[in-house]
Backbone:
């Protein structure tokens, strides 16, 4: 949930957005539902992303990309 609208000061290229953190898991706060979903994979052990070149599986797409670069 957005607490305030996006605001931009005249001449300031940065846009500031304030988020509430409505999604909570064991004291950790997440502003987006997908962030919570990714975090919950740590608890469940789910690894839905597989590497194309090996049998390794990962929690996030980013982890797959990093593993590919290391090979």
Residues:
């Amino acid at each position: 949930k957005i607490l305030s609208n996006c605001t931009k000061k005249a001449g300031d290229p940065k846009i500031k957005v304030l988020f509430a953190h409505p999604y909570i898991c064991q004291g950790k706060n997440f502003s987006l539902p997908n962030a919570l979903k990714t975090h919950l994979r740590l608890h469940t052990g789910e690894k839905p992303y597989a590497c194309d070149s090996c049998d390794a599986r990962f929690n996030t797409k980013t982890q797959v990309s990093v593993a590919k670069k290391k090979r």
About this structure: The helical segments are 33-44, 61-70.
